[in-house]
């Protein structure tokens, strides 16, 4: 019986990963059975261990990198296959992308007091790696844009406006910012009274 030389049908591709995120390399192959598979990193052999999980099926080779929370996970990985009738090899460069968790470079005051009917504006400036997602909460309930609230997030400045404010909008407001690297939040207590307040916003 003539053996079909083994060859890759899908080779490894260069990839960029974020520190701490799951990292998996996959390639597929075709050819007669009894295929030998060998992985290397930066030219040195690697095996299944506390750092790597190696899986091989009848048509694929998978390498899970378990220490992706360390910069040492980056490097050049190669997979070599052979079955006696032929051999093939592919490689990929794995680069580390440095992501910065969100942080507030400007927070709103801890408390705001204003009178009914005014527009109350809460502002917070956020730094961190993009994409950044910002969500506002009132008393731990997520706020959606509607006739009472208006939200924007432009140039890292998060703004929540309480339009035509009323006493029912009094409460604790939370600005939550998140990205792939982490999350951060800040709080402000808002009191809307029926009398004129000495401190006005907007």
TrEMBL record:
| Sequence ranges assigned to domain Ig-like in this UniProt record | 5-95, 102-193
| The keyword Protein transport is assigned to this record | no
Gene Ontology terms: biological process? cardiac muscle cell development; heart morphogenesis
Under CDD domains, the record lists: Ig (cd00096)
Q: Which Pfam families match?
A: I-set
- Recite the UniProt keywords alphabetically: Immunoglobulin domain
Record protein name field? Ig-like domain-containing protein
């Amino acid at each position: 019986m003539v053996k079909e030389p083994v060859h890759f049908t899908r080779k490894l591709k260069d990839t960029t990963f974020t520190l701490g995120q799951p990292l998996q390399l996959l390639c597929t192959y075709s050819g007669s059975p009894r295929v030998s598979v060998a992985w290397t990193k930066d030219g040195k052999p690697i095996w299944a261990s506390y750092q790597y999980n190696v899986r091989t099926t009848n048509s694929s080779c998978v390498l899970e990198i378990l220490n992706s929370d360390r910069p040492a996970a980056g490097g050049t990985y190669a997979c070599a296959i052979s079955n006696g009738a032929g051999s093939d090899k592919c490689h990929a460069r794995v680069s580390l992308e440095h992501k910065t968790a969100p942080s507030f470079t400007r927070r709103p005051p801890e408390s705001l007091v204003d009178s009914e009917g005014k527009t109350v504006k809460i502002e917070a400036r956020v730094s961190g790696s993009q994409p950044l997602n910002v969500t506002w909460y009132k008393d731990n309930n997520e706020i959606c844009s509607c006739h009472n609230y208006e939200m924007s997030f432009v140039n890292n400045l998060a703004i929540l406006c309480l339009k035509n404010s009323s006493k029912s909008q009094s409460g604790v407001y939370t600005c939550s910012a998140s990205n792939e690297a982490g999350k951060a939040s800040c709080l402000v207590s808002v009191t809307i009274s029926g009398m004129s307040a000495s401190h006005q916003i907007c």
